[in-house]
Each structure stands twice: as structure tokens, then as C-alpha cells.
Structure prediction request, 295 residues.
Amino acid sequence: MNTHSHNHDTESIGDRRLGFAIAINMLLTLAQVVGGILSGSLSLIADALHNFSDAASLLIAWVARKIGRQPADHFRTFGYKRAEIIATLINLVTLVLIGLYLIYEALWRIYEPQIIEGWMVVIVASIALVIDLATAFLTFTMSKHSMNIRAAFLHNVSDALASAGVIVAGTLILLYEWYWSDTLITLLIAAYVLYQAATMLPKTIHILMQGTPEGIVIDDVITAMQQVTNVINVHHVHIWQLDEHQNALEAHVLLSDYSQLDKVKGELKTALAQKFSIGHSTLEFEIKECKYDQC
Prediction:
């Protein structure tokens, strides 16, 4: 099997996993709403809305994967891979909003304590936890290699923690009437959600702002390029990320011998790829007599 076929099979498996995860989360949302209505629990309905946001985040990630595979065209000459970065940003922003909302709800309950009503809430929350863990299992492997899936995965982890918190708090309230436990666990969950979002947001924004890839120093790149024979000077250097896996560069290169252009170009592209993982480079070559600061 060639590499293209292997990648296609892997992507198909990933799509099926995401599709299944979306389906079970939608069913879970419906079950939580029904359970909330039957038990009269507003908190369970609120958790259902939280779980619906997880299903939505998975759907956004799935759609972004589909768009990202579209080949480059005259309208998007670099292709559509950044759709996944945009999806990551959307999911992370909603994750921050959920974290802030949880803090608001937790603080509000200090003034207006709410009782978790009966075993039905705990039972439904337990079912939700099982579904959340199953979804996490389905997306964990993919989350290692994609910021897009990782953001959706964090949505799911936050909901799993919320479900676990409902179970723990519900048990403590039913056994000991420790109503404060619900507020405490909610605040801990919110802190975790905001921390996870904070770790990914800067990198996501950095890519969208076309920042220099992490671990690459422009001066080091220029030095390495200028060590190639017949290269006098490298200037007007720009380095950015097309997506989280592909680095790109454009630069002007001043040569001492223009007849060696093809050889120099090959050596430069090899050095960029091997030393800095820059697979896409656009190089503009100039002859020695050209004043590079005027070109």
C-alpha cells in the first residue's frame, strides 16, 4: 500500500470515529434533556446544553477536516488546511466562554444554592460520563496530531469532568447534604477548562498571524543559507506556517555567480528542509551588482 492510500485510509477511519462521536453525543444530549424534564432538574438540562456544545465542537472539527483536504485552486492557492486552524480558534473561544460561564454559575449558587434532585440526575450523569469517556477514546489518538481535533477533545474532557463533578457532588449532597461541594467542583472544572484553552490559544493565534514557527530563529536560518557556496547575502526573509505541520519561507538571495543558480537553489532548499523543516520556500535570486536594499 502506498503512502497516499495509507493516509486516505487513516483519514477515513478518523472521519468515521468523529461521525460516531457526534452521533452518540447528540443522543446523549437528548437523553439528558428528557432526564432533566422528568426529574425537574434545571442543572441536568444545563449540562445537556454543555454536552450539545461538545457535539457542535466535534461537528466543526469534522467539517474543517473535510474542507482542509480540498486541493489548492485559483481561489485558495495555498489550499484549505487553515480551515482546521480557524475551527480550532472557534472551539477554543467557546471553551473559554464555557469556563467563564461555569465560574458565573458557581458563584451565583453561593447566593442561591440549588439542590441536585434525586438519583435520576446522578444516573443520567453517570451515563453521560461513559459517553464522554467513549468520545475521548475515539478522538484521543487524532488529537495528538491535530490542533483542530485537540480543541474538540478538550471540549469533551471538560464535559467528562463536569459529569464526574455532578456524580461526586450529587453523591455528597445525597449522603451528607454538602451543597457546597457542587460549587467547589464546578470552580475546579472551570479552572481546568480555562487552563487548557490558555495553553492552545496563543499558538493558534500565532499561526493565524503568520508568526515565525516555534523553534525557528530567523537569524539561524539566514546564517545557514549564507553558508551555501556562492551565496553572499540573504535578506527580506519571511517565515510562517501554512498550517500546524507545514512551514514556509520567502527570501531574496544575493549570488556571486549567477551561473550556479540551479545548484545553489537545490542546496538552499535541501538545507531549509533538513535543518528547519521548511518544505515550501520561494527564493528570489539577485546578481552581485544588485544593491539588495534597493531591489
Observations:
- The chain has two domains: 10-207, 216-284.
